[in-house]
Design brief:
- Chain B: Belongs to the binding-protein-dependent transport system permease family.
- Chain B: One of its GO terms (biological process) is transmembrane transport.
- Chain B: It is found in: Cell membrane.
- The complex is a heterodimer.
- By secondary structure, chain A is mostly helical.
- Chain A contains 14 helices and no strands.
- The longest helix of chain A is centred in the middle third of the chain and has 38 residues.
- By secondary structure, chain B is mainly alpha-helical.
- Chain B is built from eleven helices and no strands.
- The longest helix of chain B has 37 residues.
- Chain B is elongated and about 75 Å long.
- Chain B starts with 11 loop residues before the first helix and ends with a helix.
- Classes of the chains: A mainly alpha, B mainly alpha.
């Protein structure tokens, strides 16, 4: 019950921030230079053509009117019509979210597991060579530009060794995969399509590896720092002095306590991964949400920019909220 | 407690080892940065080709002969471009972080020292800016403002300033309650004088630790934006833009157009990371 009330309070705090995001995005795309209409009309269009096109997308209305229409649409689930493609923004986005979430979720989950195991390992050897080596390696990973790492991996694993499929697309089209969620690996598993599953997994290896290498360092640092705190605590030392087995110490005392700070950080890393995915998708021609939003930005496609920015802010805020709730579950002190 | 302490636990021996490790990190980071700085300051004076000079006889020439690191698709010398690009990348990164520190510190001082309504409004505005992943915000602002080195400094500074404002605000709220601040006010110093002389210098510790790490992030952001075509564009020499131009070559197995600029970028960012990590370790900051 307590937890539910805590979650509700956090949810209420997020509302003004999201309203702020909606207003700022709406105003910024219109105030800053760039005209979405000129990009679809071509060089020979007259002023009258432009005015007609503007009227078609409601851009001839006063700003307050456009804003009311936009917000009214948001509440009825209508994200508007893309100026570039003329298709519904919501349906375009639905196709793009799955592939990107597949990438981000896999990378964050693998990185978190890796960071937990390695962080505790590193803390128990604190100050020794293994610990130092691991920390420096994590820093190197964190300093790698993800778009370059992706290219180097393509160079080695595809161009030189030929171990993975060419970096274009997410699954071999010959496997006749039926799309359900848009996340190819999941869809292949749901439809029991073995060849598609193998192909999707093959396409995922390099982009996921790229992201894991880049995001694992901050998680690792956090787990290590928390684990060190536990190792130095009187409770742990007393437990160790009473001769509890290694296994009990590790499971009962170290792991849970060391993970307390991880949720908030995982949320932050999730956000970082969403940013990274724009670059990684570009390198691997992933055709996901990031590439779609980027195209929208480049062509000043107002409805696409507004929808993608607001959706990212919404996801980011929700992830932090979930992280806070998980933190509250792990650490009762937070709930007070 | 002392008799329970074992070699694996926290204690004086490890604290000494930690300090040594921190010093090693700081030295290694400084050395890498020194190396890169030397290469990009002196290197361009020694190369034969200009950064945007086209060798019509050589397009995509492999390394060797007249072009030690080969040429790109335009017939421009990779070595010369990589070295020249460093000046731009390092310059923009450092300038943007400096601007972010100044901007963020000013906001943080104002919010933390005045408190009340001013603080509330400023913090809510920062909330909106921090509702996005940093790179997404940079991407959106860069796409809307347009590219170019000057705009990039502004973009990266705007994206980073809120974090500094928060850091400084938190410090100021602690520092303003300390006895020496009260003493300064009782002694008749003006509000601004107290702020400048006593509060500001004592609120900058976390900023000094975070700034180097931030320089590394700024370099990655800058190169990332250019890679996507939103920052500096070819023919100007910039590491991200060079890597972008080499994207197609990689699938064909031509490594020399994109690997060298990436290596330079990696070494510079790693230098900042090592330096920042060492400073954090020494200051005992846990993030």
């Amino acid at each position: 019950m307590r937890i539910a009330r805590f979650a509700a309070r956090r949810l209420l705090q997020a509302v003004p921030v999201l309203l702020g995001v909606i207003v700022v995005t709406f105003v910024l795309v219109r105030v800053l230079p760039g005209d979405p209409i000129r990009t679809i009309l071509g060089p020979n269009a007259t002023e009258a053509d432009a005015a007609a096109a503007r009227a078609r997308y409601g851009l001839d209305q006063p700003l307050w009117r456009q804003f009311l229409d936009y917000v009214g649409g948001l509440f009825s689930g209508d994200l508007g019509t893309s100026i570039q493609s003329g298709a519904s923004v919501a349906s375009e986005m639905a196709v793009r979210v799955g592939p990107t979430m597949e990438l981000v979720v896999l990378a964050v989950v693998i990185a978190t597991l890796l960071a937990t195991v390695l962080g505790i390992w590193s803390a128990r050897r604190a100050g020794r060579a293994g610990d130092h080596t691991l920390r420096v390696l994590a820093l190197v990973g964190n300093s790698l530009p993800e778009f370059w790492l992706g290219l180097v991996l393509i160079l080695l694993a595809y161009s030189v060794l030929g171990w993975v499929p060419a970096p274009s697309g997410r699954v071999d089209p010959d496997t006749d995969l039926t799309l359900i969620t848009g996340a190819d690996l999941l869809d292949a598993a749901l439809t029991g399509n073995g060849p598609a599953f193998a192909s999707a997994a093959g396409h995922l290896v390099l982009p996921v590896l790229t992201m894991v290498v880049v995001i694992v360092a901050p998680l690792l640092r956090s787990v290590r720092a928390s684990a060190l705190e536990v190792l130095g605590s009187e409770a742990y030392q007393a437990a160790a002095a009473h001769g509890l087995s290694e296994r009990t110490l590790l499971r009962g005392y170290l792991t849970r306590a060391a993970l307390v700070r991880l949720p908030a950080l995982a949320a932050l890393v999730f956000g970082f991964a969403i940013g990274s995915t724009v670059l990684v998708e570009y390198v691997f021609s992933w055709q996901g949400f990031g590439q779609w939003a980027l195209r929208g930005l480049l062509y000043r496609d107002y409805p696409v920019v507004q929808a993608s920015v607001v959706v990212i802010a919404l996801c980011y805020t929700l992830i932090f909220l979930i992280a806070d709730v998980v933190h509250a579950v792990l650490d009762p002190r937070v709930r007070i | 407690m002392a008799d329970l302490t074992t070699a694996a636990d926290a204690g004086p021996p490890r604290a000494a080892a930690d300090r040594r490790f921190a010093t090693t990190l700081i030295r290694a980071g400084s050395a890498l940065l020194g190396l890169v700085a030397f290469a990009v300051l002196v290197g361009p004076l020694l190369v034969r080709w200009g950064p945007e000079e086209i060798d019509p006889a050589a397009s995509l020439a492999p390394p060797g002969g007249a072009h030690p690191l080969g040429t790109d698709v335009n017939g421009m010398d990779i070595l010369s471009r990589v070295l020249h690009a460093g000046r731009l990348d390092l310059g923009v990164a450092i300038a943007s972080v400096a601007l972010a520190v100044v901007l963020g510190t000013a906001l943080g001082l104002l919010a933390g020292y005045r408190g009340g309504r001013v603080d509330d409004v400023l913090m809510r505005v920062l909330d909106v800016f921090q509702a996005f992943p940093a790179f997404i915000l940079a991407l959106a602002v860069a796409a809307l403002l347009g590219g170019g080195a000057g705009n990039l400094v502004l973009v990266v500074a705007l994206v980073n300033a809120p974090a500094y404002a928060r850091l400084v605000r938190a410090e100021v709220r602690t520092v303003r309650e300390l006895p020496f601040v009260e003493a300064s006010r009782t002694a008749g110093a003006s509000g601004l004088g107290t702020l400048w002389r006593h509060v500001l210098p004592n609120s900058l510790t976390p900023v000094r630790v975070i700034a180097p790490l931030n320089c590394g992030w700024a370099m990655l952001t800058l190169a990332g934006l250019s890679f996507l075509g939103l920052g500096v564009t070819v023919p100007a020499a910039e590491w991200g833009a060079m890597i972008s131009l080499g994207t197609g070559d990689v699938v064909a197995g031509r490594w020399w157009t994109s690997v060298p600029p990436g290596l330079f970028l990696l070494v510079s960012v790693l230098g900042f990371s090592l330096l920042g990590e060492g400073l954090q370790e020494r200051a005992g900051v846990v993030r």
